[in-house]
Each structure stands twice: as C-alpha cells, then as structure tokens.
Amino acid sequence: MTSSPGRIFLSRIVGQDVFDPAGDQVGKLRDVVVALRGPRRPRVVGLVVEVLGRRRVFLPIGRVTSLDSGQVITTGVLNMRRFEKRSTETLAIHELLDRTVTLPDARTGTVYDLAMEQDTRRDWYLGSVAVQESGKRFGRRGATHVVQWDEVTGLVGQEPGQGATHLLATMDEMRPADLANALLDLPTKRRAEIVGELVDERLADVLEELPDSVQVEVLGVLDPERAADVLEEMDPDDAADLLGELPPATSEQLLALMKPEDAEDVRRLLTYEDRTAGGMMTTEPVILPPDATIAEALARLREPELGPALASMVYVCRPPLETPTGRFLGIVHFQALLREPPSTLVGGLADNDIDWPRPDASLEHVANLLASYDMLALPVVDETSHLLGVVTIDDVLDHLLPEGWRERDSDRAASDAAQGVGLRG
C-alpha cells in the first residue's frame, strides 16, 4: 500500500521511531487515536507512543510536526502519564483493522489498512479504507479496494466476531514483552480475539510476560485442549506458576490433557513451596554428558529459544540427561567454553566445588549464592547429587522485587525519558 502526499497509510508508520526536534528518539508509534463520529470520517486526535520502559503515552496530533513515512517528529513535549483510552476514542490499528464492512455495491470485505488525510485547516482525519473482499474463488484472495470512509458501513459499533489477521501482521516483529504490553491496553473482547489467532508458541511466550490475573483470563478463553497445548509450549516453571493460580480441578484437567512428559515436569514443580529453589527452578537447562565436546556445547547454547541466563553455562551429568538426571558432575561457564579447543571434552572442565542448593533452599539463600559467585543461574540438586533443575537470576528478581515492580519501573523510566510535561488535551 503506497502513501501519497496528504495521505498516509497507517501500516507505513505503525512501529516507526518517534523523534524530538533534536533528532533524539523518544519512542515508537504504536497506534493512532481517533474520535468516531458515525458515518462521517473520524478526526485523528493523537498517537499512542511507546517510550522507554514499554510505557504507552498519548501524543496529541497537534504536537506532531512531521509524519513522513519512516519517521515521526514531535515538538519534544510529552505527557508521561500512562495512556488511557477515553470512551469516545478508538484505537485505529488495534480496533478497526480486521473489521467486516460492506462496500457500496453490497459486497463485504475486511479492513486491512486505513489512511490519514489532512484537510485545508491542517487537521488530520481517517479518510480512506483499504478493504479486501471476502469472496474467494479457486483459492485466490478476494479483490482489494481503497474507498472513502463514508462509502462503507460497519466501521462503527460492536462486531461479534472480529478477526485479528491483519492486526497481528503489524505486530509480527514485536517482542513477546511488547506484544503483552499491547494486549493490556485493549478491551477484554479484543484481547480474546487476538489471543484466538496467535499460534501456540507465540502465545506461550506472550503469556509468560503478562500479569497473573491476565494469564488466567487468557487461558480461560481457550478451549481446554488448546490451553493444554499452550502450557506445553511454556517454560515448565512458568506453566507451573500459572496452573497454581487456577482452581485445583481446572489445573488437574489441563495437566491430564498435556503430553505425559510435559505434565510430569510441571507436576513435580507444583509440589515445591513458593519462594524456594524448587518453586523457582526450570527443568530444561542445557544438560550434556561428560564425553560431549565443546563444539557440541556451543551449538546447544546457540539455540535461539534459550534466554541469556540459561545460555550462560552447560550442566554436565551422567545419563539420564533429563531432569532428574544421573549424577551431577558440575557446570561449565560459557566463557570457559570459548577458551578451549572445540574438540575438548566438557567433562574435563566441569566445576563442582560449590555446595549447590537443595530444592527446599530459601529464596534468600539462592540469591546470596548467585551474588557471591557472580552467576546468572544456579543448579538445584537433591541429596544424592542428581540435577533437578536450574534457578535463573531473572526468576529470583521476580520474587525479590515488590509486587507490581514492572509498572513502577516503567513509570520511573518514562519520567527519566521525559522531554517536558504537559496535560492531555
């Protein structure tokens, strides 16, 4: 979709960087706020900008000096209060994309883009609607049309089963934490529609970034079979935490629907007390036998799904190599792997000179060990030296920081990034 002078399609600017007059980036454009007025074209009142700390704030359209494709420039004055949509406002990207509308010739279609246009008074409106026809023949997509706002019906009011295909296309490159943040700003109905179209692996990553209450809400809109599939895609410790928030009967139903090997790990984690090493650990670290080479170890650590903490070391054990493993022989730090020839065996590098925590070790004890030995992760072993799992530093911090720390930290980061303060209007 090509923009033209005086007309800017939203797909071209959503996700673009927002700059102040000095050329410093202040955030990213995440949505366009409009005031719907029935069949008349809606006035653009402002932009939703995501600033440092994933906080979303409102930028009045009058404070935007340039909207050229590829960059958005502001006057530099931002109100750092968290954006809250008013009842008279609509989020063009999140709420209007994928709506079913009727074209002038009575054919129906789906909105896949919208265009902003500026009038002679330099006010911005949504003037054009890009629609893809619903009808398909011989497996082909329906024809596409760009029509004026007042030439279609169905853009105003509730739609029972709105899709999310085109909206998710605009979110394809967003990190799970950013997508989770976007979901928090949406009505429950729209959130459920988006969740319904996310693939299981992507939804699992997003769920891990949501507050407990929203996790429970999201899982509740899925049928039990799909909910079990999503839980299988989550890290076992996160899945256990989520199931622990559910009624016991619901939790047991979902565990019964999961693959036995996945359910076994989660059930074991559910037996441990919260704020203990067992209650915080994950059961899927990188485990290798002593005769594995450094080349094999580095290949495993390069797997993209590994987070930084789990990729910081490998755990050397006798078979079996799934937790609980055979005898735990020690850890090998990533840096140690880089210092030796690729053919070197990891068993000769394993360090095992620390009294590793048991699953009942307290949160404070685990945190003390991580700090004392400058480690990003810590093995958890039983009394017979079998590896049960690994506690990572991010899980420890989640338990040490006060409840709601993410939101407060975002508030502080946003204040630090503020170029000025103004009232929304």
Structural features, described:
This protein is of the alpha+beta class. The protein has three domains: 1-175, no CATH class; 199-271, MgtE N-terminal fold (Alpha Horseshoe), CATH 1.25.60; 287-400, Roll (CBS-domain), CATH 3.10.580. Helices cover 32% and strands 23% of the residues. It has helices spanning 92-96, 165-170, 176-184, 188-197, 200-207, 212-221, 224-233, 236-244, 248-257, 260-270, 277-280, 294-301, 334-338, 363-372, 393-400, 405-417; strands at residues 7-9, 17-19, 25-37, 40-51, 55-60, 64-66, 72-74, 89-91, 100-102, 108-118, 124-133, 144-148, 287-288, 313-317, 328-333, 377-381, 387-392. Strands 2, 3, 4, 5, 6, 7 and 8 form a seven-stranded mixed β-sheet that branches. Keywords: CBS domain. This is Magnesium transporter. One of its GO terms (molecular function) is magnesium ion transmembrane transporter activity.
Please count the helical segments.
16
Q: Catalogue the unreliable spans.
A: 408-423
Write down the overall mean pLDDT.
90
Portion in strands = 15-25%
Total number of beta strands? 17
Q: How many domains?
A: 3
Tertiary shape:
elongated
Distance between the termini: 32 Å
Compute the CA-based radius of gyration: 26 Å
